[in-house]
């Protein structure tokens, strides 16, 4: 009961919701860059929300399915086919042993998520099956998939009829709350932060997005002791070009903290392509909490829909 990578793609990894409770040991969270897509894909096939699945970055890619079961694709729309027949994003799709799933270059987004009923049956490392590419553990020996790799699948679940849900489309308006050092920005820097477009540079990766735009200055130079950091934190290095920390962010940092991306918008960053532009929107803590609640209502709604006969 395995999944075979015929063409693994440039960076396909096993991810779940990530590794928690180990940052004091210097271990990053890892996990899906678009956790919303991962959760929806798993719910479509009947898995727990955080079951291990494949994060497929910028296909093309193809896989041979070596048992009967159900699959779901979410995230980037990769014009997928199963033995030549279309597989629509956001739909539960039955498959048979021996069929081949193909994903083409995405029409929208950056990362596709492939969930299979029963999940990918790899042993957890420090509580998670997520691949930590920098540390080299978790997932499949801590690395991205290669052509010919086979992944074990969990026990199949009872086949359910085809069913689909509405998937939100990612945007480029990213809400952020003020960080501890936001007040040290000059007045003109604050205006540029909110009004200028910020481009994701090619030096970005799962650790962080390095942005390019008008340089931001503090009112006065400052040195900071090292402090704990988390995915979503926006740092300001000396060159004045912000960095948004992502799923594989390190555990500590020493740059000024301009803000924190609202957690409800992190999935949109996970789908933003290199070279694309972002716009930051100022948000209060209350607005960020309301956005979280709205996202949870969406997940609750699709759960009810999928449980209907």
TrEMBL record:
<feature type="domain" description="Carboxyltransferase">
    <location>
        <begin position="24"/>
        <end position="298"/>
    </location>
</feature>
<dbReference type="Pfam" id="PF02626">
    <property type="entry name" value="CT_A_B"/>
</dbReference>
<keyword id="KW-0067">ATP-binding</keyword>
<dbReference type="InterPro" id="IPR003778">
    <property type="entry name" value="CT_A_B"/>
</dbReference>
<keyword id="KW-0547">Nucleotide-binding</keyword>
<protein>
    <submittedName>
        <fullName>Biotin-dependent carboxyltransferase family protein</fullName>
    </submittedName>
</protein>
<dbReference type="InterPro" id="IPR029000">
    <property type="entry name" value="Cyclophilin-like_dom_sf"/>
</dbReference>
<dbReference type="InterPro" id="IPR052708">
    <property type="entry name" value="PxpC"/>
</dbReference>
<keyword id="KW-0378">Hydrolase</keyword>
């Amino acid at each position: 009961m395995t999944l075979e990578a015929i063409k693994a793609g440039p960076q396909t990894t096993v991810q779940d919701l990530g590794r928690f409770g180990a940052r004091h040991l210097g271990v990053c969270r890892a996990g899906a860059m678009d956790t919303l897509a991962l959760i929806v894909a798993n719910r479509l096939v009947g898995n727990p929300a955080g079951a291990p699945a494949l994060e497929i970055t910028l296909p093309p890619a193809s896989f041979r399915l070596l048992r009967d079961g159900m699959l779901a694709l979410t995230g980037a729309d990769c014009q997928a086919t199963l033995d030549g027949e279309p597989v629509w994003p956001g739909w539960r799709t039955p498959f048979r042993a021996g069929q081949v799933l193909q994903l083409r270059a995405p029409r929208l987004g950056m990362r596709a998520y492939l969930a299979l009923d029963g999940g990918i049956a790899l042993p957890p490392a420090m509580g998670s099956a997520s691949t930590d590419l920098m540390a080299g553990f978790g997932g499949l020996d801590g690395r991205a998939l290669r052509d010919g790799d086979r992944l074990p699948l969990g026990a199949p679940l009872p086949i359910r009829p085809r069913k689909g849900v509405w998937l939100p489309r990612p945007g480029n308006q990213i809400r952020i709350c003020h960080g501890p050092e936001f007040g040290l920005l000059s007045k003109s820097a604050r205006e540029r932060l909110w009004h200028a477009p910020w481009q994701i540079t090619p030096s970005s990766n799962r650790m962080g997005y390095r942005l390019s735009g008008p340089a931001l200055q503090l009112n006065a130079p400052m040195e900071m002791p090292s402090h704990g950091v988390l995915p979503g934190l926006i740092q300001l290095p000396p060159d004045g070009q912000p960095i948004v920390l992502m799923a594989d962010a390190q555990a500590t940092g020493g740059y000024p903290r301009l803000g924190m991306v609202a957690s409800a918008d992190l999935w949109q960053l996970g789908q933003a392509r290199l070279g694309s532009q972002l716009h930051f929107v100022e948000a209060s803590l209350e607005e960020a909490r309301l956005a979280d609640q709205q996202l949870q209502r969406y997940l609750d709604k699709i759960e009810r829909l999928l449980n209907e006969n």
